[in-house]
């Protein structure tokens, strides 16, 4: 009799515990996220999900599949995904076209050792100087964005006044740019890999990186929500920003582990995965946004007069440090204006 009572009690407790877990799951706020378009670059979403950072903030990450980078702004506006990203210039171009989105947290950014993009050619290529690129075939994964504008700005920096239209662009699936180069379909290629991997792959030579063009400020890839989402769910946005800030710092401290997590989740070879440098605490730098406004304005690819305040806000971020109270009050006022 005693044994039956204990068994029944255990069963009841298990049922109740299961009910508690289900209730907790139901309380999680769902945020729809795209799977990574570039398979060999570490996804902070995957890392945050694997480490339980989303759950810690009461968020459930719902992955909806790959959304091509040029379609992300439209996908956010349509509600297919809640969060968009990619290079800052795509966000700016979307806003210029009328999209009501706002960047709220920084992601990867450039350092000398870990640039956002690397442009390579074959080791025996006759390309030696910037002017040698004129008229050559460039393999990139998509028009626009960092893929297209980085080489334009490299050429402009080296005296080519109007570089747009002076390269023959060949688009390839993400991660296949070097394949196009090796089979003779392109003369140079733009890739999102670690410069060390260029040496490992063999037979290649680095021409330049985005660091050579802009230093550390050109590689910003902030994440954005629609203005509608921000207005309706500001607390979810704030918690999401905390997750990303925490994840950024973790990846910077553990790049090898981040690459392993991404490789497992993306089902790719770990040896091809690259962990970029991520913006400490997720703080968006105004100079990075202004840089891309100026570039797109120079090429007449956006409407004139766009201001950085239209593109991003750090109002949802709470960077560490002793001076928290005054900035928080200012951020609350900014959020109220959104």
Topology:
Elements: H1 2-27, E1 29-35, H2 44-50, H3 53-56, E2 59-66, H4 72-78, H5 88-96, E3 101-105, E4 108-109, E5 118-122, E6 137-140, H6 145-157, E7 168-171, H7 177-182, E8 188-191, H8 195-201, E9 204-209, H9 210-214, E10 223-226, H10 227-232, H11 234-253, H12 255-266, E11 277-278, H13 286-298, H14 308-311, H15 325-337
Parallel strand pairs: 1-2, 6-7, 6-8
Antiparallel strand pairs: 3-10, 4-11, 5-8, 5-9
Helix pairs in contact: 2-11, 2-12, 5-13, 11-12
Structural notes for this entry:
It comes from Geomesophilobacter sediminis. Residues 43-258 form the SsuA/THI5-like domain. Residues 322-332 have a biased composition (Basic residues). Residues 1-23 form the signal peptide. Keywords: Signal. With 338 residues, this protein is of the alpha/beta class. It folds into 2 domains: 2-109 and 218-337, 3-Layer(aba) Sandwich (D-Maltodextrin-Binding Protein, domain 2); 118-214, Periplasmic binding protein-like II (D-Maltodextrin-Binding Protein, domain 2, 3-Layer(aba) Sandwich), CATH 3.40.190.10. 45% of the residues lie in helices and 15% in strands. The strands form 4 sheets. It has a 5-stranded mixed sheet with strand order 7-6-8-5-9, sandwiched between helices. Strands 1-2 form a two-stranded parallel sheet. It has a two-stranded antiparallel sheet with strand order 3-10. Mean pLDDT is 88; it is low at 1-23, 321-328 and 330-337.
């Amino acid at each position: 009799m005693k044994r039956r009572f204990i068994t029944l009690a255990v069963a009841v407790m298990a049922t109740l515990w299961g009910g508690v877990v289900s209730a907790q799951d139901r309380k999680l706020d769902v945020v729809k996220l795209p799977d990574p378009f570039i398979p060999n670059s570490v996804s902070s979403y995957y890392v945050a999900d694997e480490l339980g950072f989303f759950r810690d903030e009461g968020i459930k990450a719902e992955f909806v599949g790959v959304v091509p980078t040029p379609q992300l702004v439209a996908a956010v506006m349509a509600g297919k995904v809640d969060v968009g990203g990619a290079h800052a210039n795509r966000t700016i171009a979307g806003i210029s076209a009328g999209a009501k989105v706002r960047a709220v947290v920084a992601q990867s950014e450039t350092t000398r050792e870990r640039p956002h993009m690397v442009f390579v050619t074959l080791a025996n290529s006759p390309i030696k100087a910037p002017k040698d690129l004129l008229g050559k075939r460039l393999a990139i994964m998509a028009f626009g964005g960092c893929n297209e504008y980085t080489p334009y700005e490299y050429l402009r920096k080296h005296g080519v006044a109007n570089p747009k239209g002076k390269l023959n662009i060949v688009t390839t699936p993400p991660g296949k740019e070097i394949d196009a180069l090796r089979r003779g379909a392109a003369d140079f290629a733009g890739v999102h890999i670690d410069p060390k991997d260029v040496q490992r792959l063999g037979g290649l030579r680095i021409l330049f990186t985005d660091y050579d063009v802009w230093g550390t400020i050109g590689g910003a890839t902030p994440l954005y929500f629609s203005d509608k989402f921000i207005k309706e769910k500001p607390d979810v946005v704030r918690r999401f920003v905390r997750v990303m800030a925490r994840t950024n710092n973790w990846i910077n401290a553990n790049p090898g582990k981040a690459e392993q997590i991404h490789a497992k989740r993306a089902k790719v070879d770990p040896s091809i995965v690259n962990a970029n440098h991520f913006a400490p605490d997720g703080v968006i730098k105004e100079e990075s946004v202004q840089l891309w406004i100026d570039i797109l304005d120079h090429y007449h690819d956006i409407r004139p007069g766009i201001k950085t305040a239209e593109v991003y806000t750090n109002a949802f971020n709470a960077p560490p440090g002793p001076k928290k109270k005054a900035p928080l009050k200012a951020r609350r006022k900014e959020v109220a204006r959104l």
